[in-house]
Design brief:
The structure holds two protein chains of two kinds. Chain A is an alpha+beta fold. Chain A has 15 helices and 28 strands. In chain A, a hairpin with a 2-residue loop joins strand 11 (about 140-150) and strand 12 (about 150-155). In chain B, helix 2 (about 155-165) runs parallel beside helix 3 (about 180-190), helix 6 (about 265-275) crosses helix 7 and helix 9 (about 345-365) crosses helix 10. Chain B contains twelve helices and 23 strands. Classes of the chains: A alpha+beta, B alpha/beta.
């Protein structure tokens, strides 16, 4: 087949129109040869519409300098990423260019048209064969392994090789680079296929080499109390965090990326501030992963396409991220993908849709917004692999709704497809109640670490407490009964002592499930207790003391002497006032044992 | 010899189109109109048809006017000669001085590689206590000043330009009233800051396309100075006018609007400018302070809303003062631990007491009895507003901290302030007999 070529006939923003001769496929990568002499560069682009011989491409770079008649070269390859050992710990842009290496090549600025290989070429990996000559292999089957950080990286038959092959030769154990041939397959028709440790996979196709997709039943622990206890996220599930600016979306994502109980974290910084990525970039290598004792960076991949980087690559970045996540899932690992922010990705689609002059939907977003968002989140999942092990991809996306109003198309389209909703509220962040997840608006369809009924019981105090609080605004404290007032105080107490968590406190920032269960039980005892109080002032000051006790208690090292001493203080404070207990609450507490 | 095109095919608003070949996207052209030559920028190529936005506007352009393509994109001259000068959005002198044409640099260049950025670490002192003490401005920060029309935001900018400890100021004015332009010029001249200032000014009477160029030329010049090791403060006023100019061009171009008529790429357009703020590890820095007026005091309006998602905090200018509650510098924690040990204590303590004062004011307005504590708060609140919040106060951070202690000591007993005991022991003013 001959290479298809074409010539530019129009430029509008980052959309270029070209006339092509030969076959062109949708989402194929094309390069535009712009400029001449020293300024000549090849700009990467993706085919997004074909009409006869007129092809429209979105360019992943600034289009300044492109002229009518510039040559366009079609590659016949879909936009793809390179998969293999050496991805962990790296920082890529949306097209998988390693940014530190780009900086070595071009200095402070991201010059257009510079594309570098994603995997380190100079590095050798200790390969151990796992298959032997004569084995019948299919795609994603194990050929051998290499150690990558604390993981066993599986070298697999490339996912795009359909059919069954027999293994003719596999390299003996030893040190190999990613480009060296480590195995040869025979397709049974006499054709030999050499395999290296790396291969490419198109980003917009989900990796589907597994035996079965399972339902997420186990929780993915984040060590944030309000999430794990009240609005849990399933391993292999999806969740979203919408919130106005300044409500703490990014801080919450950063805390989760540090503490989440998963093997690998992929951070897709999509169209947000560069400064925030820099924080992660500079801090993660210094922080230790409590699970392995190694640097957090070793389990992290950052895909970063910040707000001033070209818009079309922003759209690609979330797909690059999810593809790398799926690749590690194929190794039986649990991966968490954090996308911040999916609204910027949706806006990138809107810009392109406008240039294509498509008929706009709501707020000028394209009509296919919902299906594209659904398709992205559906790439999450927990799967049983062919060797019986399980791997998962969990996706958490932030949404930045215009004006903080959740009734906008991106938030609504996301809510339809996710399993858990953590809505951040301006009201809570203004009151410095962090994490600002609103306990009455948020929901989760997943099973958490705690008995559902007990959680619902506690949640009732929040909603009833809020009702009483509303009423009090109208009738004043005087018009509220002591009984109602106690419910209100209990709700406030649950909020302050359990839902709020100090992400800057070294102990409080991450609470193990074991400790959450222990503390939650104590909280339930307080909620279920009938508290004796002479009047409202008396009740309030008692609850304030209790709350103060809890703040210290939450900051004490788990199982330390101080922890036990503080718990004893809380219990004795409780014993002074408790007059009995709600039978339903007591039953639930017993069941928690 | 450059080819001259003398047949303009269409004129819509400020956009003209001609049939021409070998034209690059983003290239500049010169259009000779009956009012003299004007620059124009290529904004669309469609087969042989080239669309250009004319800097001087479409008014009076005839289909017979001549168009010459210049073969390069928008550039601005960069040298030390820029200092003290005033230009318009197209880079033409506004102050009667000579045209500058040497060492031209392209505007709107590529963005900085995130892996080359560093965590911000230095404070910019402005001598304004509401900034230095309560919401410190940090080198490489991008901060908008959210304000309503009629607030003294340009006065505030001018004060910052005079007082900020930076090497260089670039002031970009968009849709400025002519009076405001003169005010800036006179203030900076009489204050002696003009020699370290470069101004790019588009006034409300100038063609709208030039308004779009102001942030780009300002930031391109700032970037060059930063790369030479200078710490540059870029002051932009008013970004809402810039956004409105974007809207105007988008609508005449028949683009589908997204929200209240603004184009769908408003966020990206604003971000591309604000993200120019940077601290180079091996050179200088760019810090951006930009006025964003909020139509109808509505922070959910698309311009302030998109801005808030991009910037690192915001200053609210309300009632002639920087409002302490809505204002936030997201980067202040990076620097205010390194100034004086009592900085954070005074910052939090005084704001908490000021919040209590606001509650008391509300109680008072509803006619409740004022307790002794309320009286103390009222006294404190008035002192705080007079000696800290008032925009005319100019004191160094250390002096502002001392003044904070003096106000507290004047109004309260030490234990009433909620400040840490070790700080009180060290800083509480000793009563002189």
């Amino acid at each position: 087949m001959t290479k298809t070529i074409g010539a530019v006939t129009g430029v509008n923003g980052n959309m270029v129109t070209a006339r092509a001769q030969g076959t062109v496929s949708m989402n194929e990568v094309a390069y535009i040869a712009a400029g001449s002499g020293a300024g000549a560069k090849r700009l990467k682009s993706e085919v997004i519409r074909i009409r006869g011989d007129v092809v429209q491409v979105q360019v992943f770079e600034m289009t300044k300098g492109i002229k009518i008649g510039d040559a366009v070269e079609f590659t016949d390859e879909m936009l793809s990423v390179e998969l293999g050992p050496g991805l962990l710990g790296q920082v890529f842009d949306g097209l998988q260019n390693p940014l530190p290496k780009v900086a070595e090549a071009t200095g402070n600025f991201l010059e257009p048209g510079v594309y570098l290989e994603a995997l380190p070429r100079e590095r050798k990996w200790a390969f151990t064969p796992a298959a032997k000559a004569g084995d019948r292999l299919e795609r994603a089957d194990l050929v051998g392994t290499v150690p990558e950080g604390s993981f066993t990286h599986r070298v697999m038959v490339p996912f795009q090789l359909l059919g069954t092959y027999s293994l003719k030769w596999v390299a003996p154990a030893g040190e190999y680079g990613v480009d060296e041939v480590v195995a040869r397959l025979d397709d049974g028709k006499g054709k030999e296929i050499p395999l290296t440790m790396s291969f490419r996979w198109p980003v917009k196709r989900g990796v589907d080499c597994f035996a079965e997709r399972l339902r997420p039943t186990e929780p993915m622990v984040t060590k944030t109390r309000i999430i794990d206890t009240f609005f849990p996220v399933g391993r292999g599930g999806t969740y979203c965090i919408p919130g106005p600016f300044g409500a703490g979306k990014t801080v919450l994502q950063q805390v989760t990326s540090r503490n989440a109980d998963v093997d690998i974290v992929i951070i897709a910084a999509c169209g947000e501030r560069a400064g925030e990525v820099v924080e992660t970039l500079k801090e993660f290598p210094e922080l230790l992963d409590p699970r392995t004792g190694r640097s957090l960076m070793e389990r992290t991949v950052i895909i970063c396409n910040t707000s001033s980087m070209p818009v079309a690559a922003r759209e690609a970045s979330v797909y690059t991220a999810v593809t790398i996540a799926e690749y590690y899932r194929q190794m039986g690992l649990h991966v968490l993908l954090l996308a911040d922010s999916t609204s910027r990705w949706a806006q990138a689609m809107r810009e392109m849709s406008g240039r294509l002059e498509e008929i706009p939907g709501e707020e000028a977003f394209p009509a296919y917004l919902e299906s594209v968002i659904a398709g992205f989140y559906e790439r999450a999942g927990i799967v049983r692999l062919k060797d019986g092990s399980t791997g998962s991809v969990t996706i958490g996306g932030t949404v930045s709704p215009a004006g903080g109003n959740f009734e906008e198309p991106v938030t609504q389209a996301t809510l339809k497809v996710v399993g858990s909703f953590h809505g951040l509220s301006r009201e809570r962040s203004d009151a410095r109640k962090y994490p600002a997840i609103h306990p009455l608006d948020s929901w989760s369809k997943y099973e958490g670490i705690m008995n559902r009924e007990a959680v619902d019981y506690a949640h009732r105090f929040l909603s009833r407490g809020a009702e009483v609080g509303q009423m009090m605004k109208v009738v004043g404290e005087e018009g509220t009964s002591l009984e109602d007032y106690l419910v209100y105080l209990k709700g406030e107490f649950l909020d302050a002592a359990y839902l709020q968590q100090n992400s800057f406190d070294p102990v409080d920032c991450a609470m193990s499930p074991e400790r959450q269960r222990h503390v939650f039980k104590l909280v339930l005892e307080i909620l279920a207790a009938q508290i004796g109080a002479s009047d409202k002032e008396d009740a309030r000051s008692w609850f304030y003391r209790l709350r103060q006790g809890f703040l210290d208690y939450n900051g004490a090292e788990w199982r330390s002497e101080r922890f036990s001493a503080l718990e004893k203080d809380i219990r004795s404070l409780l014993a002074q006032r408790v007059k009995g207990a709600d039978p339903r609450g007591s039953r639930l507490i017993e069941r928690l044992e | 010899m450059k080819k001259v095109y003398s047949r303009i095919e269409s004129i819509t608003g400020n956009v003209i189109s001609v049939r021409a070949d070998d034209v690059a996207y983003g290239e500049l052209a010169e259009v000779s109109t009956r009012f003299g030559p004007s620059l124009a920028e290529v904004i669309r190529l469609d087969s042989g048809l080239v669309s250009l936005q004319v800097f001087a506007g479409g008014r009076g352009i005839s289909t017979g006017d001549e168009v010459v393509f210049l073969g390069h994109p928008m550039r601005v001259s960069f040298s030390e000669d820029l200092l003290g000068r005033i230009f318009d959005g197209a880079g033409e002198p506004r102050d009667g001085g000579p045209r500058l044409a040497e060492n031209l640099v392209a505007v709107g260049g590529p963005s900085v590689n995130p892996s080359k950025r560093i965590i911000p670490r230095e404070m910019i002192r402005t001598g304004i206590p509401m900034i230095d003490l309560f919401n410190s401005l940090v080198k490489s920060q991008k901060l908008p000043i959210f304000s309503v029309s009629g607030e003294p935001y340009n006065q505030l900018l001018a004060r910052i330009a005079m007082q900020a400890e930076v090497d260089l100021i670039v002031l970009g004015g968009m849709g400025l009233k002519h009076d405001d332009y003169l005010y800036f010029r006179e203030t900076l001249e009489s204050g002696g800051a003009i020699s370290k200032t470069i101004m790019f000014v588009h006034t409300a009477a100038d063609p709208v396309v030039e308004c779009l160029m102001v942030p780009d030329v300002s930031l391109a010049v700032a970037e060059r100075f930063a790369l030479k090791g200078k710490n540059v403060l870029v002051l932009l006023t008013d970004m809402t006018n810039f956004s409105d100019a974007l809207k105007e061009i988008a609508i005449t171009q028949e683009q589908v609007p997204s929200n209240r008529g603004y184009p769908g790429d408003l966020y990206s357009q604003l971000a591309a400018r604000y993200e120019k703020a940077v601290d180079f590890s091996d050179a200088g820095s760019i810090t951006i302070l930009a006025v964003t007026t909020m139509p109808g005091d509505d922070v959910t309006h698309p311009v302030p809303d998109n801005t808030g998602y991009i910037t690192e905090g915001q200053y609210y200018l309300k009632g002639g003062r920087i409002e302490p509650f809505g204002s936030l510098s997201r980067l202040k924690q990076q620097v205010n631990g390194k100034t004086r040990p009592d900085h954070r204590g005074i910052m939090d303590g005084m704001i908490k007491l000021y919040a209590a004062y606001k509650d008391t004011l509300e109680k008072k307005s509803m006619g409740f009895q004022m307790t002794a504590w309320d009286q103390k708060l009222l006294r404190y609140g008035e002192a705080f507003e007079r000696e800290m919040m008032d925009l005319s106060v100019k004191i160094e951070l250390e002096a502002a901290l001392d003044k904070g202690w003096a106000i507290l000591a004047d109004c309260f007993e030490p234990q009433e302030t909620g400040l840490r005991t070790d700080l009180i022991d060290k800083y509480w003013p000793k009563k002189t007999a």
